[in-house]
Amino acid sequence: MGVLAACFGIGMLAAWNPLAARVDHQAYDWMSEAQPAPAHDALVVAIDEAALRARGEMQNIRKILVEALDKIDEAHPKAVAVDVILASEVDPADDARLEAALRVTPNLILPVELDTAGQWEEPAPRFKPLAKAIGHVHHVVDRNDGVSREVALEKVMGSRRYWALGLEAYRLAQGADIVESPDDIQVGNTLVPAARAEGRPMRIRYLASIPTMPLLELTARREELRGKVVFLGITALSAAHDRLVSPMGESVSGVEVHAHIYETLLAGRFLTDVKDSTILAVCAGFTIAAGLIFGFLSGWAAYATAAPLLAFAFYVPVLFFRQDQVFPMVAPAAVAWLSAIGAATYQHFVVRRTLRRTESEKSRYQQAMHWAAHEMRTPLTAIQGSSELMSRYKLPEEKRGQLSEMINSESKRLARIIQTFLDVERLAEGHMDLKRETFPAAAIVDVCMSRVTPLAERKRISMSIETPVDGTLKGDRELMEYAFYNLLTNAVKYSAPDTRVRVRADLRGTELRLAVTDEGMGMDAKELKNIFQKFYRTKRAEASGEVGTGIGLSIVEQIVTHHGGRMEVASTPGKGSCFTMILLAQSTTATHAETADR
Ligand code: ADP
């Protein structure tokens, strides 16, 4: 869950940086291939290079406009938008002629622009009243890639506000008013989703082309203008100060962009940005889907199911675009991929961890079984041997008594081994409540010593208790006995004949140290580190021919730590070892006092 949330967060963050924005724009451009529909109404009359050359370049622009307007007017277009700023009066004679031409132009729209000082450059006073509408000609280009994708339908500076030239042309052509509300503007039946708070942006849907009539062909093709909305402007590269790049990567002049804006309004299909909450919801959907896939499936099934999901993440923007909605490309893709990778990685580790756990449990159990079988073999052999003797031979009463005694004690030992095995298993799994008996430490030392002495005698190893054993222990007597017995048998097992094994007890405060010192083969530092690991045996021990499973000490350590104690080992190879059990204890006298108090 945490992993998925993190992937979602990182994916969303990754989708909110300039690079991602660029990719989103690229995707938008790729999706917004030009609408194949032909222009309906708009037509550009282009003052191109040829026209400028033929008419004496830009100083004659007013004369050129007069010529163009005269011819345009004769064709009775629906509206005429002029994309040449007429802010100043230049030559009285030219201006007078221009004024006359503008006066007879139907539905005239003149341009207004902000100058470098941030002031509106309105048409000169003699031209301004002739216009039915004045529209701004500012373009919005993307800061990163210079592509013109949208238009600010409204532009406010100081106390004045102008609508875009294309919008004004549309309004006049429709013969309608602009009705505004905070979220959109309405022209006739057309509702344009362009919120005031954001500067009323509208995405331009570029057509494949806008019919363009070069100025010099105007006389011959004049009739084509009839009933059209004409955009008159400069397209010559040398003179136009507003050449832009369309999302299709084509160079377009400003006047053409105004015509595209007009056609966008006319088509009435507007692209809007998807709400942030929708983006979040869709992306969260991808995260959840990735989580479910890797939660319920694994291996190839999971990857095979995730693949279409990841592909679908790229397809989501296309689906939205078909509904005229702009959905970012990076956000769903980043979130889906990161979530899938995150979930897959997590799954991988979880699977591996459980596999490792079950494997180690299995081997632990197998080894424990091995140990139990090994430990049980000795008493079983004794029982088998004794019972065979008793049934085969007619033995004297005394010998029979001894043998049945032996069978009895060995079967008890067998029972004890089984009990210990079960206890140790439960101890390892943490399912064991330790018994809380109170008993003198001397009791377990004595029992174990007497049990080990016969073994020691076989190797002529002398066993001695060097100090009186004081102190009372609390815990599981059976297990403690097992632990101490193990230390003693190891000392005997790993010592050469004719050596000594000594036991020392030392009670300091609440700590009882029970030390078993031998003069055996010993261990080096590296071996010492491993001896409490299950099934570890030193090379020396293996070579000595002494049988063992390597499990005893690990059980000893578990028992001791479960009783709140710890183990200490000191050893020198070839010289001997000293294993010390450090246990919590009370001095026997204190315990007596306590008992007496009660
Ligand atoms: P086992 O005796 O069955 O091999 P243990 O867990 O009791 O298993 O001991 C683990 C290993 O530690 C032994 O195999 C031996 O190599 C080493 N070891 C234990 N006690 C001694 C000792 N007193 N002297 C030398 N080596 C010892």
Describe this structure in words.
- This protein has 598 residues and is an alpha/beta fold.
- It has three domains: 2-17 and 274-348; 38-268, no CATH class; 433-597, 2-Layer Sandwich (Heat Shock Protein 90), CATH 3.30.565.10.
- The chain contains 18 helices and 25 strands.
- Strands 1, 2, 3, 4, 5, 13 and 14 form a seven-stranded mixed β-sheet that branches. Strands 19, 20, 21, 22, 23, 24 and 25 form a seven-stranded mixed β-sheet that branches. Strands 9-10-11 form a three-stranded antiparallel β-sheet, covered by helices on one side.
- Strand 15 and strand 16 form a beta hairpin.
- The chain is rod-shaped.
- It starts with a helix and ends with a helix.
- Residues 593-598 have low confidence and may be disordered.
- It binds adenosine-5'-diphosphate.
- Adenosine-5'-diphosphate is lined by residues 486, 490-491, 494, 518, 520-523, 531, 536-538, 541, 548-554, 577.
